[in-house]
Amino acid sequence: MITYDFTGQTAFVTGAGSGMGADTARAFAQAGAAVALVGQDRDALDALAVELTEQGQQALAIRADVADEEQVAAAVRQTVDTFGSLDMAFNNAGIMFAPIGAADESAEAFDKITAVNLRGVWASMKHELAQMRTQGSGSIVNCSSLGGLVGGAGRASYHASKHGVLGLTKSAALEYAPLGIRVNAICPGTISTPMVERMIAGGELDLTAALAAIPMGRLGRGEEIAASVLWLSSSAASYVTAVALPVDGAYTAQ
Questions:
Q1: Is 4 a known active-site residue?
Q2: Are 13 and 212 in contact, with CB atoms under 8 Å apart?
Q3: Per-residue confidence (pLDDT) for residue 2, from 0 to 100
Q4: Catalytic residue among 4, 158, 176, 251, which?
Q5: pLDDT for 112-156, tens place per residue?
Q6: How far is CA 90 from CA 33, 37, 76, 133, in A?
Q7: Cα(42)–Cα(30) distance, rounded to whole angstroms?
Q8: Distance between CA atoms of 207 and 187, rounded to whole angstroms?
Q9: Domains, the chain, with CATH or none
């Protein structure tokens, strides 16, 4: 992986307890950033914080539900109070339910998905931007999905939420570009994470069919998502904002 030097900077990562969030948090820490680990699994967050601090890195575990704006605001305040700034954010927390027809999905399921996947990104970005505005700098990367670029039978609400993330990203990028703040999104394909492993084990995802639909012929890895987030967060991408970057093995190019 290409390395970056984020010494003296602070990264804020939601959904940091496992999968892409944990891998990205590790990458930020290895690049010298202090990292706020935000999520709902206290044990997983604490374990990752211990792992990073034992390696001589700075990490802070914060239990918060991104669907609750007050908890997000408190997490941002705690991060700034502890580390002194908020320079980079990866708004990664998200959920997905088993496939269901659009005519059969409950309003409760729709509300739960959008509460985390869309409102959670909105709330996180809102309070990150408020802090970055006072600093006059910052970079935010929102986690959309290949589902933000294409439709998906049986997952209308999930894809709607991920399309919404791109609307938030582009609008905020336009508004904050003059202030020196960049806002981008990544659109991961099918990545080998604990969530995907559970989907395969539970019969929600046919691995053979999934691999056949990916031109590169394999699942993505968490560290490949981390590499994309770190590039977008770094000075190497200083003229890049408002993009929706597919990281999907060419799935959405078909």
A1: no
A2: no
A3: 65
A4: 158
A5: 999 999 999 999 999 999 999 999 999 999 999 999 999 999 999
A6: 13, 10, 13, 17
A7: 22
A8: 20
A9: 10-187+221-245 (3.40.50.720)
